[in-house]
Design goal:
68 residues, alpha+beta, Alpha-Beta Plaits, two-stranded antiparallel sheet
């Protein structure tokens, strides 16, 4: 799994941090969220997908394609 965040779309709403704090961060002075764990373990897929679903700008994508 790979999590990507498009910084050009992110408006720092922070919904990703609320639903998946183990995967995202948003500092007090940040203009965009950051992915703290772009390639997390599979058991975090639900949190990653919830963060993508919660993002009001659609800045987060979760790729579940197996790596070769």
């Amino acid at each position: 799994m790979r999590i990507d965040l498009d910084s050009t779309l992110c408006d720092a709403h922070g919904q990703c941090v609320i639903v998946a704090p183990d995967l995202f961060d948003l500092g007090d002075d940040d203009d965009v969220a950051t992915v703290t764990n772009p390639c997390p373990a599979g058991h975090l897929l639900g949190q990653a997908q919830a963060a993508a679903d919660a993002c009001p700008t659609g800045a987060i994508t979760v790729d579940t394609t197996p790596s070769a």
